[in-house]
Amino acid sequence: MIYLTIEIYFVLIIGIYWILLFGWIKTLFSKPILQQIKPNTKVSITIAARNEENVILQCLESLAKLQFPEKQLQILIGDDNSEDNTKQIIKDYIKDKPHFQLINIVPEKYSKGKANVLAQLIKHSDSEFILVTDADVQVNKNWIKEMLKYTAPTTGIVTGYTHIQSKNFWNDFQSLDWAFAQGLMLIFFETDQAITAMGNNMLISRKAYNEIGGYENLPFSITEDYALFEAISKKGYDCIQVTNTNVKAKTFAINNFKSLLQQRQRWIKGSLGKLSWLLSILFLVQILFLPLFIYELLFKDWEFALYAYGTKTIMQSVFLFFIFKKVNEKFPWKNIIFFDWYYFITNISIIIYTILNPKTIWKGRTY
C-alpha cells in the first residue's frame, strides 16, 4: 500500500509540473492592456529603513537614477529609530536632492513595524500612486513608468518581479526559491486568482488605499503587504502580478541561515491559514518529494526513484529557466539538481524553528 501511494505521489507531482509548464506557456500569450501615463501624474515612493547602513546607499542611488520628472516625484524615507549609521547616510545623500525627504518615524503611532512606517510616510504624500520598496532593494531606471502602465481605474495593487542577486552557491538557491514562488504567483494571477502582493516592489492606487482606511485601519500583521493585498482585494480592486525585466528590482540574498529562518518564519506567521488551499497543497507536495524519493531509492525500486527524480528535476528546471529568461537573468544550472535538497532542508528547519521560537524577531524587534 505504501509503495502504491508513493507511485501515485510521483505521478501527481509530475502532473503538477505539466500544469505549471502549460500555465507558463499561457502567460506568453497574455497581452495586458497597457495604460497611457498622464503627463502630470504624481508619484510617491516610500521606503522603510531600520538599521540598513550596509545597503541603504545602493537603494538611494538607484532611486536617484529614476527616469521620471522630479517635480512630479516624492521619495519619502522613514527612519524607524535606527541604531546604526542609517540616518546619517540618508541625510548626507539627500542634502542636495529636494525631491527626497527623510522622515523620523514615531514608534507605534498607527501600527507596529513596517506598517507603522508606511502609514506615516503615506500621510506625508500627496500623489495619485504610491510605490513601495525596501531599503535593501535597487530598482531599475524605468521602474515608475513601467509600473504605471498597468494602472487601470480598477487596479488597486501592481506587484513587480524581485530578483535575488547571487554572489555564491548559497545565494543561487535563494534566487531559485524566489523565482519558483513568483512563478507560481504569476500562474495563479493568470487564472484570475491573485494570491498576494510583495512589499519590496509594489504600486498602490491612492483611491484603493483611501477606501480601506490605510494601514492604520488594518489589524496588525507581521506581513503588512499581505494584509494590504487582502483588504484591497475585498474591496473589489484588481491586484496585478507583472513579471518582466521592465518592472524588475534586485535585492540582496540573506547570507546566514538563522536570518533566513527568521525571514521565512515571519512570512509563515503572516499568511498562516490565509493562503489559497491549492497553493498550500503545492508547497506541501514540493516539500514531501525528497523524503519520499529517498524512501523509494533505499527500500523499494531505485530505478523508478531515479526516473522520478530525473523527470521532476528536468521539468522543474525548464519551469525555472523560463522565469529567469523572462526577467533576463543568468540561470544557475549548477544548483538545480540540488534544489529539492535545499527546499526540503530549509522548510523543515523553518517549521522546527517556528515551533521552538514562537516569537518573531525582525529588524531587532520582537513581535
Commentary on this structure:
There is one protein chain. By secondary structure, the protein is an alpha/beta fold. 51% of the residues lie in helices and 15% in strands. The protein contains 13 helices and twelve strands. It has helices at 2-28, 56-64, 86-94, 113-123, 143-148, 169-190, 206-211, 224-234, 257-271, 277-299, 302-326, 333-336, 339-356, and strands at residues 43-49, 73-79, 100-104, 129-134, 137-139, 155-159, 162-165, 201-205, 238-241, 249-252, 361-362, 365-366. Strands 3-2-1-4-8-6-9 form a seven-stranded mixed β-sheet, with helices on both faces. The protein has a three-stranded mixed β-sheet with strand order 5-10-7. Helix 1 (2-28) packs parallel to helix 11. The longest helix has 27 residues, at 2-28. The chain is globular. The chain starts with a helix and ends with a strand.
Radius of gyration: 21 Å
Helices and strands: which structural class? alpha/beta
SSE order: HEHEHEHEEHEEHEHHEEHHHHHEE
**Considering DSSP H and I runs of 4 or more, what fraction of the residues is helical?**
40-55%
Whole-number average pLDDT?
Answer: 91
What is the strand arrangement across the widest sheet?
A: 3-2-1-4-8-6-9
The rough form would be described as globular
Question: In angstroms, what separates the terminal alpha carbons?
Answer: 45 Å
Secondary structure tally, helices: 13
Largest sheet composition: 7 strands, mixed
- What is the chains' assembly state? single chain
Number of extended strands: 12
Strand content: 5-15%
What is the topological layout?
Elements: H1 2-28, E1 43-49, H2 56-64, E2 73-79, H3 86-94, E3 100-104, H4 113-123, E4 129-134, E5 137-139, H5 143-148, E6 155-159, E7 162-165, H6 169-190, E8 201-205, H7 206-211, H8 224-234, E9 238-241, E10 249-252, H9 257-271, H10 277-299, H11 302-326, H12 333-336, H13 339-356, E11 361-362, E12 365-366
Helix pairs in contact: 1-6, 1-10, 1-11, 6-11, 9-13, 10-11, 10-13
